[in-house]
Write a structure and sequence with these properties.
Distance between the termini of chain B: 19 Å
Number of domains of chain A: 2
Number of domains of chain B: 1
Order of helices and strands of chain B: HHHHHHHHHHHHH
Distance between the termini of chain A: 41 Å
Protein name (chain A): ABC transporter permease subunit
Largest sheet of chain B: none
Biased composition (Gly residues) (chain A): 259-274
Organism (chain A): Streptomyces polyasparticus
Helix content of chain A: 25-40%
Structural class of chain B: mainly alpha
Radius of gyration of chain B: 21 Å
Shape of chain B: globular
Number of strands of chain B: 0
Shape of chain A: elongated
Biased composition (Low complexity) (chain A): 226-238
Oligomer: heterodimer
Helix content of chain B: over 70%
Largest interface: A-B, 42 and 46 residues
Keywords (chain A): Membrane, Transmembrane, Transmembrane helix
């Protein structure tokens, strides 16, 4: 490099350009500049936010709660931890001042007229007192799910898969606040079901036998209409060889709690009052009701985010246009000439459109939630029949953030489709057919096909908007009409993520191989 | 394209009926020579028949027939694919107009045929004709597959479900109505395309119209609002023509519903014509 030599010249390359301008950060900046400077695209984003919020608010405004039976039923019983519960059953019990053990042989467990509830319950129960909502632990046999050890309404542990038709020995031992369940086929060889700690079981508690038989939901679902009917069931359990170590006082027979009235329509005992009798150490209990967490039917958080279903059309159009507009105008050639590593260009585009859609989606879903909640409350969706939701609650936060992620993933998926198809019309139509048409159709399709769509197509992403807690140990109907996705929120959004990544990957592979 | 213009040229001077046929011929040539037209039309048939077959194939009559209350509308289920195929049909109608704006052909077209009404009418005629043919193939194909699959699912004559056939008045109404509905969706696309001109914008608009209404209607928990929304929706009202059972449960009567869809299509076409007439190309 002496001054006498002519330096090697690259006249077309300005020295002002820093090295590494093909870096990923520069790519991101380039793509962001493209997105930012097209005014129509900014308006589209604004439109997506507005459509989402307006539709959500509209849905909230139109929803009114109708009390069929009329009047409030007073506060719903709540269990330990404030969970809304159902707690009504037939109980034959005596006092247990200290530690002790109850051992019984459940000789017979049969359901009366009507359908068999899969979560009917018969067995032994130790409960703080006979008031609904009091802390408890129970070892039971169920018609559909074998032996279970349950405590404090929300906890459930499985024992053997013994059928309800055969006699079964059950034993529950109290040692302070630790309760241990055992089961046996013959009363000689015992196996432990499990041990649970129930903090509420201090001092004198009640020990005894119980039977509960929940409502059986049946569903008639036709093209475009669904009707769910609940009928009460009634079960009878016969116990013999009942021994209680440490018990004191006489046996008492109680109908714990009020029988559940279907959706507040009736307040009297639905299944009739329980009956029980004792003769020569043989107990026969008949009753209805259930000991379980109560389920909310209406997902208020999902309801206040429902505008996402329409906002996605605009986001999808934007995602598609972000690449197809370049193909249309021939701009893509300039883009690829400037940065020949095409895969990276596409990834940079995906990052930019994804982050932008996430930001817009977040604004839209937070605004929808905050505006829709007071409206819903004013329309009658308030405690005690409906939960009070805060933006900071775990499930609500998941739904609100999840809706933004949902829109971001839809944008990325749309971008990938746009890169694959290179045509605006085809790509937009595909996204709409993938998301919007199934959303309309799930309420009318046969339930098997509808749930297939909900689980295995990109539609699954909408599961993230669900906030209702579903317990495995309560029989519930999962209806697409009610926005129930069978797989749960995380798997749902994960499915959509897989689709988005797969389509983007395919697009990267295709763009690298094909001429522009 | 150029040939059509050349052969059309002498007719411009001749007054009378020849002008309209010339315009229609030109539009037909334009549509016919695009690959995308035929792909789209194939897509419509496949979407309609495929989704219909998936729906009827997933039917399980077993648990349903046990209860006497179950009353599935097998014809309507067989034609579920129309809900999806209409998206492709709308694209077809929209592209017939917006593709010309995208490439600038529209200026040539309007220079050759200065009457905006005639251009739009010619487009509408050609699009409607193709839509009717493709619609008929799709609907009849779905119905044929539905007939087979529904029988497989156990919806037999003994169970109170006579085999699906065109001899039944309600089924014939569903078929004719389904084809007409497809024509109306395509015309809706043409009208909106003429009004908005931009492909992406028009498609977003037409999809929001077709699918947004039923989605919003489903969100409304007040039954009166829901019914009103369904009556106004071109899709929900228009597709009530596919029902053959439980007509009283529909938000609107079959033919009246198709009338709602037709009003939408005509209304949007008029707006499209007004924009085409009032605005520079």
């Amino acid at each position: 490099m002496t001054d006498t030599q002519t330096p090697p010249v690259t006249p077309y390359r300005s020295t002002a350009v820093p090295a590494g301008r093909d870096g990923f950060v520069q790519l991101l900046r380039a793509e962001w500049t493209k997105l930012r400077t097209v005014r129509r695209w900014g308006l589209t984003l604004l439109g997506a936010v507005l459509v989402t919020v307006l539709v959500s608010v509209f849905a909230a405004t139109s929803s009114k709660v109708q009390f069929a039976g009329g009047g409030d039923r007073g506060p719903e019983p709540t269990g330990p931890g404030g969970v809304r519960i159902v707690d009504s059953f037939r109980y034959a019990h005596q006092a247990l001042p200290g530690d002790g053990t109850i051992t019984v042989r459940l000789a017979e467990f049969r359901t009366g007229e009507g359908s068999t509830p899969e979560w009917g319950k018969a067995g032994v129960l130790i409960k703080k007192d006979a008031a609904p909502g009091a802390s408890y632990a129970a070892l039971m046999l169920t018609p559909g799910h074998g032996v279970r050890l349950q405590n404090d309404f929300v906890h459930d542990r499985a024992g053997s898969n013994s059928p309800a038709g055969e006699p079964r020995w059950l034993r529950l031992t109290r040692d302070g606040t630790t309760l241990t369940g055992y089961e046996s086929a013959d009363g000689k060889e015992w196996s432990e079901v499990g041990a649970v700690t129930v903090p509420g079981l201090t001092g004198t508690v009640q020990v005894g036998l119980f039977v509960a038989s929940p409502m059986v939901d049946t569903m008639d679902r036709q093209f475009g209409s669904v009707s769910v009917s609940s009928e009460p069931s009634r079960s009878t359990a016969v116990f013999d060889d009942v021994t209680v170590d440490g018990g004191s006082g006489d046996w008492r027979h109680t109908d714990v709690g009020e029988q559940p009235g279907g959706d507040g329509q009736s307040s009297g005992p639905v299944g009739g009052e329980g009956e029980s009798s004792e003769s020569g150490g043989r107990f026969t209990l008949t009753g209805s009701g259930d000991i379980a967490p109560a389920q909310y039917n209406t997902d208020l958080a999902a309801m206040s985010l429902s505008g996402t279903q329409l906002g996605l059309v605009l986001i999808a159009a934007l995602g598609v246009l972000f690449i197809t507009a370049e193909y249309r105008r021939g701009m893509i050639r300039t883009t690829f000439a400037a940065s020949p590593r095409r895969g990276r260009v596409l990834v940079a585009k995906a990052v930019v459109i994804g982050v932008t859609a996430f930001a817009a989606g977040l604004v839209a879903s937070v605004a929808s939630f905050l505006i829709a909640q007071p409206i819903l409350k004013a329309n009658g969706h308030k405690p005690p029949r409906f939960p009070e939701l805060q933006l900071t609650d775990g499930p609500v936060l998941r739904a609100v953030l999840g809706s933004a992620v949902l829109l971001a993933l839809i944008a990325v998926l749309a971008l990938g489709l746009g890169a694959l198809l290179r045509r605006t019309a085809g790509a937009v139509a595909t996204v709409v057919v993938l998301f919007v048409a199934p959303l309309v159709l799930v309420t009318t399709l046969p339930i098997g096909f509808a749930q297939f769509l909900q689980q295995f197509t990109p539609l699954a992403g909408f599961a993230v908007q669900e906030t209702l807690t579903r317990y495995d140990h309560v029989a519930t109907l999962c209806l697409p009409e009610e926005g129930c996705y069978p797989q749960g929120p995380w798997i749902g959004i994960g499915t959509l993520l897989l689709y988005a990544v797969a389509v983007l990957g395919l697009a990267v592979w295709r763009v690298r191989r094909r001429d522009v | 394209m150029s040939e059509a213009l050349l052969t059309g040229a002498p007719r411009v001077t001749a007054r009378g009926a020849g002008r309209m046929t010339g315009a229609v011929h030109a539009e037909w040539t334009k549509l016919r020579t695009l690959h995308s037209t035929w792909w789209l039309l194939l897509g419509i048939v496949l979407c309609t028949v495929g989704v219909g077959a998936l729906t009827t194939g997933s039917l399980s009559a077993g648990d349903c027939l046990a209860r006497r209350t179950c009353d599935e509308d097998t014809v309507k289920l067989s034609l579920t694919g129309v809900w999806v195929g209409q998206a492709a049909m709308a694209v077809f109608g929209v592209l017939a107009v917006t593709a010309e704006y995208g490439t600038g052909t529209m200026r040539v077209t309007l220079a050759a045929i200065p009457s905006r009404l005639r251009v739009l009418a010619a487009k509408a005629v050609v699009v409607a004709g193709l839509a009717a043919v493709v619609g008929a193939v799709s609907v009849l194909g779905s119905l044929y597959l539905g007939r087979v699959l529904v029988l497989d699912a156990g919806f037999t004559a003994e169970a109170g479900y006579p085999p699906i056939g065109l001899g039944d008045g309600a089924t014939l109404r569903a078929v004719v109505g389904g084809v007409l509905y497809y024509v109306l969706v395509a015309l809706l696309g043409v009208g909106l395309g003429a009004a908005l001109r931009d492909t992406a914008g028009t498609l977003t608009g037409v999809f929001l119209l077709l699918y947004g209404f039923p989605l919003v209607a489903a969100m409304l928990s007040d039954p009166d609002w829901e019914k009103t929304a369904k009556r106004l929706s071109p899709t929900e009202a228009g597709l009530s023509v596919l029902a053959t059972r439980n007509l009283e449960a529909l938000p609107i009567g079959p033919w009246a519903g198709l009338g709602v869809a037709a009003s939408w299509a005509v209304g949007v076409l008029v707006v499209g014509w007004a924009v085409l007439k009032g605005r520079d190309a």
